[in-house]
Give the backbone structure.
Amino acid sequence: MRTPKQLTPLGAIASGLAAGLAGTACMDTVRFLRQRRAGGERNPLRWEFAPVRTWQEAPDPGQVGKRLIEGFTQRELPDAAAWPVSTFMHWSYGAAYGALYGVLAGSARKPPSGVYGVPFGAVVWIGDYITLPIAGLYEPIWKYDRRTLVDDLGPHLAYGAATGTVFWILGKARTVRVRTHRTHRAHVNG
């Protein structure tokens, strides 16, 4: 039985999706700031939505999307699809992991604070180093040097921290709405 503070499963998924999108924006902000520090000249929107002209240039989320679409349709995607597929997959990947976080955190009897997002971000990171080598997009984790792994872990921790925090804030806002609604209803009926 659900307690009044627990989210419904659909509410947990919806809050998780929103939190995952915020987490993705935070992860991308960390990556953007790094490239700026390294001398990058692009503004944030041009960097975030940089054109991907060919499938050779497509990042890993785009490569996964290409394989899924081509496997389902049995048709080769043209290079013109590289940018929209890559962008869609990147954001949907972050949102989907956020939904998973929402289900896990929303299932807890006591809503977790935002700090639980940080270890979740580490789980997402390690998941990449399990699934992407299987897909042939990454090398096995032991083939990367420590610096590369740490550099990749940082944005994932930022993703987790933002996802957990936004999910927690949305849960707090829901608790306030439930409390306010009950107080109003008691006053009206009272």
